[in-house]
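Hmm, what's this shape?
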Amino acid sequence: MSRRGLRTGALALVLAGTCGLSACADSAGPLEGPREGIKVTTQCSPTGPEGSVFGIVLRARGQDPVTITSTSFEGSNLHEPRALIDHEGVGRDELVGAWSWPLTGELAFGPALMERAVDAVDAVVEPGSEVSVLLVVEPEDDARPAELRRVDIGYEAGGRSWTERIETVLTAAPDGCGGDGR
């Protein structure tokens, strides 16, 4: 075998080994979050008795249905964050930015939206559709804000596994949000 062939083979092994060790998942899959032109979203919400709810829209591109297989969260002072899917909100113009939960009369559609939302894991997003991901954030220690910095949504489509990573700063603030949006 030539030197060039050996170098090419060695490079392929290094790349394969790197992905195998770091559990690479293609983040440019058919489920698309707020990545084009938006690097980091920043939102703050006063915390209600059951936390704060933040909304992000996801789009399913391609020909295959998308099945969400996992969610993971990174941040500080988080008490069991969770992700819900609302299949109807985008079509109804019922989009969530950020609000405390339960609502205190601010948005009439809030209770119905939360009732129809389903757990993100095992939810199916049909090709060409948009869904709202509702991120429920509560502080572990009620004296300090909770901050969600990253959400990874694992999913399968067309026989492949993918991860949509959403870099964000979502703050659930027990004492309210300051003038700087945090």
Notes: Residues 3-22 form the longest helix (20 residues).
